[in-house]
């Protein structure tokens, strides 16, 4: 059974629902426009009205996008417990919600003005930075005129991830991280890099989380855990050991990480000949990982399975010690 990835972007959604109110309020309270009759005044008034309409349009797109993301997340939870017959319809609805969210976030970016350009055009500055034509500091200074832009990009990246468009997610989350580095953005970015097999880049991205926020132990642990889950879902159990060890060290109270570590270590079992019979040698920490899971969740979802595994592994260990 494939493991479900840990998601953090509900935080971003809640943040943006508050943040998007600011641009509209500023536009509505802009002084010195009403009542001017001269040509220049009319031009200023028209420009002000354009900004008001753009702010209203942007907020509508963001509200629709956020709603679609929340619906998709609800459907994802339902899929986890749905029957085989129910899953196709739920998956179809979830994918449709992610598609809606992507389209609406992109429309919101089109309604986000950066100087005389919309945000999608202005984001090309980041590509210019990579080519060395202007400094990153100058590009960021131009783009962060809209404080919501990094949050919109972060949420758009999460929507791309939900739709399975991992390269688009990586590009978008990378833009968000340049503008405003945040722990949740790096967590999602690390997960998506792992989805494309870029494991070294993924773990390096996870490492940035604690450097950015020394209190984000659980977020960094979740990032490592996600990298490991991606590896395990593609059969790379041994490669998953290191990130899971990091995850359990950062968040030792996460029972699922201990169970996954046990699963990864089981795949490192080797054999040896002893007294004319074949014995199995367990990797260090295998039994302890499963025992830690049961200590934390003695009646948890995997408890019966873990007990059964431990019974078998204990017999292997005795064989190796005889």
Report on this model:
The chain has 322 residues and is mainly alpha-helical. The chain has 2 domains: 189 residues, Serine Threonine Protein Phosphatase 5, Tetratricopeptide repeat (Alpha Horseshoe), CATH 1.25.40; 61 residues, no CATH class. Helices cover 72% and strands 4% of the residues. It has 16 helices and 4 strands. The protein has a two-stranded antiparallel sheet with strand order 1-2. A two-stranded antiparallel ribbon has the order 3-4. Helix 8 runs antiparallel to helix 9 and helix 10 packs parallel to helix 12. It is elongated and about 85 Å long.
CATH topology of the largest domain: Serine Threonine Protein Phosphatase 5, Tetratricopeptide repeat
CATH architecture of the largest domain: Alpha Horseshoe
Main beta sheet: strand number and arrangement? Answer: 2 strands, antiparallel
Globally, the shape reads elongated
Question: SSE layout and pairings?
Answer:
Elements: H1 10-19, H2 21-28, H3 39-81, H4 87-110, E1 113-114, E2 117-118, H5 119-122, H6 124-130, H7 136-143, H8 149-162, H9 166-179, H10 183-195, H11 199-212, H12 217-233, H13 237-250, H14 255-266, E3 270-274, E4 277-281, H15 286-296, H16 303-321
Antiparallel strand pairs: 1-2, 3-4
Helix pairs in contact: 1-3, 1-8, 2-3, 3-4, 3-8, 4-8, 8-9, 8-10, 9-10, 10-11, 10-12, 11-12, 12-13, 13-14, 14-15, 15-16
